C-alpha cells in the first residue's frame, strides 16, 4: 500500500520557498481525508439506518399482527371457580399378565352450577331432581338461592343423563369434563384392585386417586405422568381369576360358609396368578365401610380375607415342624415318633376327636394322619428358640409385603412369650395366627426347592432367588409327605387322575372375641401345591365357618369342605395355566378320534 | 430619508426562532407524540381509577398528576427541540453527569417503595427515577464519543463509551433493574452499529449469542424450563400475562366499551406495564393499532430522516434516541401479547409515571432537535461532481 503523506515534501519545500505557511497544506490534506472518511461512513450509516428502519417496521408489524390474532381469537372461559390448575390427568391403566384390561379411564362429565347465570332456579331444581333421583328439589333450590355462586351437583353422569340436563337448557348449568376410573370386569379381582375416587377437583378436570388395594398402594406409580402411557401389568391371569372366583362362590354357598379366600401363586416367582375373597364388591360402586364399630371387619365385603384375614391356620402348619426337624437332622421321614400321649406341665394334648393312632408312627405318617401329639413331640425336639426364627424366616410372623395397601395392617398375631406350650400349639397352627397369603408364601418355599418367596402382584419375568430356608432334599421330602396326605390321608378328596396334588388340611376353631373358642365355628384351610412331581403352583383355599351337611353327620373338617373346592379349582384352572393332565381325557361317547 | 439622515437602525441581526423552529421541525413526529400523550391521558382515565380507589384518593387523582407532569414534559420537549445540535450535546452530557451522580447515590439515599428494587429518590410530593433521565444523556455522550473517534487523531471514543456503558449497566443491575440495563446496552449497541461496527465483529457476537443460547438451553434445566414455559401455548390464566391476554381477547376489534373493562381491577400494573391491555379491552384492536402505528411512525420516520444527515454526531445521537424510544414501546407491547418474556417496561407517554413521562419528553425533544431539516451540503457535492 502506498501511503500518501499529509505533508508532501515537494509541496512543503515549494511553500517554504514562496514564503507560504506549510501547515496550511497539512490542514487542507487532513480536511480532504476527513471528507472521504465521512462520505464512506455516511454511505455505510445510510444502509445500516435503512436496515434499522426495516427492523423496527417489521417488529411493530409483528406486534400489531399478534394483537390482531389475539383480538380475533375467543377468550378463555373465566376460571374463577377452578380449584387448581395442576391436576394430573391420565392415570395409567391396569392390565393382567396377558394385557387384558382390569382398570382404565373413561371420559365423563361433572355437573356444576353457576348460580348467577341461572334463569329459573326453581325449575332447574325441579327438573334436576327428576333426572337424578337422589337429589331433592327443595334442597337444591335452597342451595341455588342462598348466595353461593358455585355449586357441584354431580361428580359423574351418564351420557343419557347429560343429554337430559342439556335439555333443561339453563345457562347456569355447566359440565366439567373429567376422567373417571372404570373397572370393566365388575367384581372380578375387586379386592386386588381396590378402587379409586376423585381427589382435587377442578372445573375442567379432576384428579383420580386410589382409595384401596393396589390402586392406593401404587398410587404414585399410576399417577406418574411419565409412566401414564404404559399400563401397570399385574401377575393376575384374568381367566384363572374368574374361574377361581366362580368356584369359590359355589363352594361358599354349598358349604354354607360366611366367606372364603383363594390364593393361587407361582412357587418360583412369587407371582400371584389369582387372589379371591368372597364376598366381593363392585369397585365401580364401592360400598361404604361398616358403620357399626363393634361389627367384625370380616362382615364387610370390602374385607380381603386372603390378606387381611389373620386366622389360626391349624394343621397346615404341621409340615413346617416336620421340615425343620428334617433340616436340623433330628428326624427322617421314617423316624418313629410317639403318638400316644403328650403333656407339657399340667396341659395334656389330645388328638382331634380323641383318635388314638397307636404308640408310634413315622414322621410321614404323623403328617399324613395329622397327629397333634406326634407333631408336638417333633416340635419339642426342635425347641421354641429354634422354631420361632424358622417360622419367621418363612415369613409367617410378619405382615405380607404384597403390593396392597391393606397388607401392612394385617400383622400376624404371635404370642410374646414362647414357652413349650406355645411351641407345641404353634406346631399344629394354634395359638398364633397368620394370613392365607403368608401361608401361601411359606408353602411356596417348600414347593420350589427351599428358597424364600416374596409374594407379588406385579408381573415378573424371572424367577426370584430368595435366601435358602431348607435344603433341596428336605423340600422334596416335605412335598412327598404332603402328597401322601392326599393319596392316603385327610385330603383324599383332592385325589384325581389328571393332576397330582400335594397338600395339608387344617381345621381351626374360631376364637371368640372375649376369649376361648367356639365349638361349632371353624376356619378350614387346605394348603396345596401342584403338580406334586414338580410343583409349579401353590393353592390355598380357606373357608370361613363352613359346614358339610351332605353326609349322615354334620362335618366341619377341611377334608370335607376346603379340599373338594381346591380339587375343583385345580381341575379347572390347571389346563388354563398350561399344565398337561397326567392321562388323556376320555373320548366322548360315540365319537372316535380319526388318525391317519 | 430618515435612514439617509440618521443611518439605519442598529437592529439585532438574528433569525426569528419560532418560525425557523416551525419550519424545520418534523411536524408529523411531533403530532404523533402529542396524540400519544392524549391517548395516555384518555387511558389513564380508565386505568388509574382502581389504583386511586385502592389508595383512597379522588378517582381521577392520578390523571390530574399525569396531566401536570405531561404538561411539564411537553414544555420540556418543545424547549429542547428548539436547541441546536451543539446545545443538545451540552445538555445531554451535563444531564448524563448529573443523572449518573444521582444513580451512584441511589444505594445511599434511594428508596424502594416496598418493591424490592432501589430505583427512586423520594422528594415527598413526587419521586424521581434517575435511570429514566440517564438514558438520553448516555446516548448523547456515546454518540459524541463515537463521532469524535471517527476523526483522524481523534480520541478512542468507542473504547471509552464502552467502558461507560459497562459501568452504567453495572449500577443498574445492582438496583436491580435489568430492563433499563438491557435498554442502555441496546442503545450503545445501536449507536456503535451505525457508527460502523465491523461486520465481522457483529457476526462473531451474533454467533456467540446463538451458540451460548443453544448451549444454555441444552445444559441448564432451569433456563430450558423458562424458555419452554414462554414458548408453551397455554398459560396460567391467573398470572398477569394471563389476564392481559384475556383482556385483549375480550376486547376484540372494537372493545367492550369505555369504562366497561375488567382487567384494570385485577392487574396491579394496569396503569403502567400493562396499559396496552386496558386499551385493548376497552377500545379494542382499533386503538391498539393506532398506538402501534404512532410509535412505528415516530421511530421509522426519525431514522429515515437521519439517513440524510451528514453530521456524524447528529446522526448517531438521533439514531440512539429513536431506537431506545421505539424499542421500549415495542418491548412493552411485545410482553403483553407474549412475544417476549415478561419484563417490566413502561410505554413512553402512555404509561403513568412522572419521571417516565418527563424523561420521555426530553428524549423526544432531543430527537426532534436532531431531526430538524438542516442544509446538508448537497450543493457542495454537486459542485465537486460527486453524487
From TrEMBL, chain A:
Give its localization: Membrane
Q: Which GO terms describe its cellular component?
A: plasma membrane
Q: Which InterPro entries match?
A: Beta-lactam/transpept (IPR050515), Beta-lactam/transpept-like (IPR012338), PBP_dimer (IPR005311), PBP_dimer_sf (IPR036138), PCN-bd_Tpept (IPR001460)
- Domain Penicillin-binding protein dimerisation, chain residue ranges per copy: 90-223
In this protein, which residues make up the domain named Penicillin-binding protein transpeptidase?
A: 260-549
For this UniProt entry, the molecular function terms from Gene Ontology, in alphabetical order, are: carboxypeptidase activity; penicillin binding
Transmembrane annotation, as ranges: 49-69
Gene3D superfamilies recorded for this chain? Answer: 3.30.450.330, DD-peptidase/beta-lactamase superfamily (3.40.710.10), Penicillin-binding protein 2a (Domain 2) (3.90.1310.10)
Q: Which SUPFAM superfamilies match?
A: beta-lactamase/transpeptidase-like (SSF56601), Penicillin binding protein dimerisation domain (SSF56519)
A matching Pfam family:
Transpeptidase
Q: Which UniProt keywords apply?
A: Carboxypeptidase, Hydrolase, Membrane, Protease, Transmembrane, Transmembrane helix
Coiled coil location:
none
**One biological-process term from Gene Ontology?**
cell wall organization
The protein in question is named: Penicillin-binding protein 2
What is the scientific name of the source organism? Tabrizicola oligotrophica
TrEMBL record, chain B:
Q: What is its main location?
A: membrane
Pathway listed for it is: Cell wall biogenesis; peptidoglycan biosynthesis
According to its record, what are the GO cellular component terms? cell division site; plasma membrane
Q: Which NCBIfam families does this UniProt record tie to the protein? A: ftsW (TIGR02614)
Q: What keywords are assigned to this protein?
A: Cell cycle, Cell division, Cell membrane, Cell shape, Cell wall biogenesis/degradation, Glycosyltransferase, Membrane, Peptidoglycan synthesis, Transferase, Transmembrane, Transmembrane helix
Catalyses which reaction? [GlcNAc-(1->4)-Mur2Ac(oyl-L-Ala-gamma-D-Glu-L-Lys-D-Ala-D-Ala)](n)-di-trans,octa-cis-undecaprenyl diphosphate + beta-D-GlcNAc-(1->4)-Mur2Ac(oyl-L-Ala-gamma-D-Glu-L-Lys-D-Ala-D-Ala)-di-trans,octa-cis-undecaprenyl diphosphate = [GlcNAc-(1->4)-Mur2Ac(oyl-L-Ala-gamma-D-Glu-L-Lys-D-Ala-D-Ala)](n+1)-di-trans,octa-cis-undecaprenyl diphosphate + di-trans,octa-cis-undecaprenyl diphosphate + H(+)
EC number annotated for this UniProt entry: 2.4.99.28
| Upper classification of the organism | Bacteria, Pseudomonadati, Pseudomonadota, Alphaproteobacteria, Rhodobacterales
Taxonomically, the superkingdom here is Bacteria
Specify the enzyme's EC class, one word. transferase
Pfam families found in the cross-reference section: FTSW_RODA_SPOVE
Supply the gene name.
ftsW
Q: Which family does it belong to?
A: Belongs to the SEDS family. FtsW subfamily.
Its recorded name reads Probable peptidoglycan glycosyltransferase FtsW
TM region(s), chain numbering:
28-47, 67-85, 91-113, 156-174, 181-209, 283-304, 316-337, 349-370
What is the annotated localization of this protein?
A: Cell membrane
- Report a single Gene Ontology molecular function: lipid-linked peptidoglycan transporter activity
Q: Which residues form the signal peptide?
A: none
The cross-references to InterPro entries, in alphabetical order and at most eight, read: FtsW, FtsW/RodA
Q: Does the keyword Cell cycle apply?
A: yes
Tell me the membrane topology, using the record's own terms. Multi-pass membrane protein
| Gene Ontology biological-process entries | cell division; cell wall organization; peptidoglycan biosynthetic process; regulation of cell shape
| This protein's record includes keyword Cell division | yes
Amino acid at each position: 500500500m502506498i501511503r500518501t503523506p499529509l505533508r508532501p515534501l515537494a509541496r512543503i519545500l515549494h511553500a517554504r520557498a514562496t514564503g507560504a505557511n506549510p501547515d496550511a497544506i497539512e490542514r487542507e490534506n487532513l480536511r480532504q481525508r476527513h471528507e472521504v472518511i465521512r462520505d464512506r461512513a455516511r454511505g455505510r450509516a445510510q444502509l445500516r439506518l435503512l436496515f434499522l428502519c426495516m427492523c423496527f417496521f417489521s417488529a411493530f408489524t409483528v406486534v400489531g399482527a399478534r394483537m390482531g390474532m389475539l383480538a380475533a381469537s375467543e377468550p378463555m372461559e373465566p376460571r374463577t371457580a377452578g380449584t387448581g390448575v395442576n391436576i394430573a390427568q391420565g392415570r395409567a391403566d391396569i392390565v393382567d399378565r396377558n394385557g387384558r384390561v382390569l382398570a382404565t379411564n373413561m371420559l365423563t362429565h361433572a355437573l356444576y352450577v353457576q348460580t348467577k347465570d341461572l334463569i329459573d332456579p326453581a325449575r332447574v331444581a325441579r327438573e334436576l331432581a327428576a333426572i337424578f333421583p337422589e337429589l331433592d328439589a327443595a334442597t337444591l333450590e335452597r342451595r341455588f338461592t342462598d348466595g353461593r355462586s358455585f355449586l357441584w351437583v354431580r361428580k359423574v353422569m351418564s351420557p343419557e343423563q347429560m343429554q337430559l340436563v342439556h335439555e333443561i337448557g339453563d345457562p347456569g348449568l355447566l359440565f366439567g369434563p373429567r376422567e373417571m376410573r372404570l373397572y370393566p370386569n365388575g367384581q372380578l379381582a375387586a379386592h386386588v384392585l381396590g378402587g379409586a375416587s376423585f381427589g382435587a377437583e377442578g372445573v375442567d378436570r379432576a384428579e383420580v386417586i386410589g382409595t384401596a388395594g393396589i390402586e392406593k398402594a401404587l398410587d404414585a406409580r399410576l399417577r406418574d405422568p411419565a409412566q401414564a402411557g404404559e399400563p401397570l401389568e399385574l401377575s393376575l391371569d384374568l381367566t384363572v381369576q374368574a374361574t377361581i372366583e366362580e368356584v369359590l362362590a359355589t363352594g361358599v354357598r354349598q358349604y354354607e360358609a360366611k366367606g372364603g379366600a383363594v390364593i393361587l401363586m407361582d412357587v418360583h416367582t412369587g407371582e400371584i396368578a389369582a387372589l379371591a375373597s368372597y364376598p366381593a364388591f363392585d369397585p365401580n360402586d364401592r360400598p361404604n365401610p361398616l358403620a357399626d364399630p363393634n361389627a367384625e371387619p370380616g362382615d364387610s365385603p370390602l374385607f380381603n380375607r386372603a390378606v387381611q384375614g389373620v386366622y389360626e391356620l391349624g394343621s397346615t402348619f404341621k409340615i413346617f415342624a416336620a421340615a425343620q426337624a428334617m433340616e436340623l437332622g433330628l428326624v427322617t421321614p421314617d423316624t418313629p415318633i410317639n403318638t400316644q400321649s403328650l403333656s407339657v406341665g399340667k396341659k395334656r394334648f389330645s388328638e382331634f376327636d380323641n383318635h388314638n393312632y397307636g404308640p408310634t408312627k413315622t414322621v410321614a405318617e404323623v403328617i399324613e394322619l395329622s397327629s397333634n401329639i406326634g407333631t408336638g413331640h417333633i416340635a419339642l425336639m426342635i425347641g421354641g428358640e429354634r422354631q420361632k426364627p424358622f417360622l419367621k424366616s418363612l415369613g409367617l410372623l410378619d405382615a405380607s409385603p404384597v403390593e396392597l395397601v391393606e397388607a401392612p395392617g394385617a400383622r400376624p398375631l404371635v404370642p410374646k412369650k414362647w414357652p413349650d406350650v406355645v411351641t407345641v400349639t404353634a406346631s399344629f397352627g394354634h395359638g398364633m395366627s397368620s394370613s392365607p397369603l403368608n401361608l401361601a408364601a411359606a408353602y411356596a418355599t417348600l414347593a420350589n426347592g427351599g428358597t424364600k418367596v416374596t409374594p407379588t402382584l406385579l408381573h415378573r419375568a424371572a424367577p426370584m432367588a430368595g435366601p435358602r430356608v431348607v435344603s433341596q432334599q428336605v423340600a422334596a421330602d416335605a412335598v412327598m409327605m404332603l402328597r401322601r396326605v392326599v393319596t392316603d390321608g385327610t385330603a383324599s378328596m383332592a385325589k384325581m387322575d389328571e393332576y397330582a396334588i400335594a397338600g395339608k388340611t387344617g381345621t381351626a376353631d374360631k376364637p371368640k372375641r372375649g376369649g376361648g373358642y367356639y365349638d361349632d365355628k371353624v376356619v378350614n384351610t387346605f394348603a396345596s401345591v401342584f403338580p406334586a412331581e414338580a410343583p409349579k403352583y401353590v393353592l390355598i383355599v380357606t373357608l370361613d365357618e363352613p359346614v358339610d351337611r351332605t353326609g349322615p353327620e354334620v362335618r366341619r373338617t377341611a377334608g370335607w369342605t376346603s379340599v373338594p373346592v381346591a380339587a375343583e379349582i385345580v381341575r379347572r384352572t390347571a389346563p388354563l395355566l398350561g399344565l398337561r393332565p397326567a392321562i388323556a381325557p376320555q373320548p366322548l361317547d360315540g365319537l372316535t378320534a380319526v388318525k391317519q | 430619508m430618515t435612514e439617509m439622515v440618521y443611518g439605519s437602525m442598529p437592529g439585532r441581526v438574528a433569525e426569528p426562532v419560532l418560525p425557523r423552529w416551525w419550519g424545520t421541525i418534523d411536524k408529523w413526529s411531533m403530532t404523533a407524540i402529542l396524540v400519544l400523550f392524549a391517548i395516555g391521558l384518555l387511558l389513564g382515565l380508565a386505568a388509574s381509577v382502581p389504583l386511586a380507589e385502592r389508595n383512597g384518593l379522588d378517582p381521577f387523582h392520578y390523571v390530574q398528576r399525569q396531566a401536570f407532569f405531561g404538561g411539564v414534559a411537553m414544555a420540556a420537549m418543545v424547549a429542547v427541540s428548539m436547541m441546536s445540535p451543539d446545545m443538545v450535546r451540552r445538555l445531554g452530557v451535563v444531564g448524563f453527569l448529573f443523572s449518573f451522580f444521582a444513580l451512584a447515590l441511589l444505594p445511599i439515599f434511594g428508596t424502594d417503595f416496598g418493591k424490592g428494587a432501589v430505583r427512586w429518590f423520594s422528594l415527598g410530593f413526587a419521586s424521581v427515577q434517575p435511570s429514566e433521565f440517564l438514558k438520553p444523556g448516555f446516548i448523547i455522550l456515546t454518540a459524541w464519543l463515537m463521532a469524535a473517534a471517527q476523526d483522524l487523531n481523534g480520541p478512542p471514543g468507542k473504547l471509552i463509551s464502552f467502558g461507560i456503558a459497562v459501568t452504567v449497566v453495572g449500577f443498574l443491575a445492582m438496583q436491580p433493574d435489568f430492563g433499563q440495563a438491557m435498554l442502555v446496552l441496546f442503545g450503545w449497541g445501536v449507536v456503535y452499529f451505525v457508527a460502523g461496527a465491523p461486520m465481522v465483529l457483529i457476526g462473531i457476537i451474533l454467533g456467540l449469542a446463538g451458540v451460548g443460547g443453544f448451549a444454555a438451553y441444552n445444559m441448564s434445566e432451569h433456563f430450558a424450563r423458562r424458555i419452554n414455559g414462554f414458548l408453551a401455548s397455554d398459560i396460567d390464566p391467573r398470572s398477569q400475562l394471563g389476564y392481559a391476554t384475556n383482556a385483549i381477547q375480550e376486547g376484540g376489534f372494537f372493545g367492550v366499551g369505555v369504562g366497561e373493562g375488567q382487567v384494570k381491577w385485577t392487574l396491579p400494573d394496569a396503569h403502567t406495564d400493562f396499559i396496552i391491555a386496558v386499551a385493548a379491552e376497552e377500545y379494542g384492536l382499533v386503538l391498539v393499532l393506532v398506538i402501534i402505528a404512532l410509535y412505528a411512525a415516530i421511530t421509522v420516520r426519525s431514522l429515515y430522516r437521519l439517513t440524510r444527515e451528514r453530521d456524524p454526531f447528529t446522526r448517531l445521537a438521533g439514531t440512539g434516541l429513536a431506537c431506545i424510544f421505539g424499542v421500549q414501546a415495542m418491548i412493552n407491547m411485545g410482553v403483553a401479547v407474549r412475544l417476549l418474556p415478561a419484563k417490566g417496561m413502561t410505554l413512553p407517554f402512555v404509561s403513568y409515571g412522572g419521571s417516565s413521562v418527563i424523561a420521555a419528553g426530553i428524549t423526544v425533544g432531543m430527537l426532534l432537535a436532531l431531526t430538524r431539516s438542516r442544509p446538508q451540503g448537497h450543493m457542495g457535492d454537486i459542485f465537486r461532481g460527486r453524487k
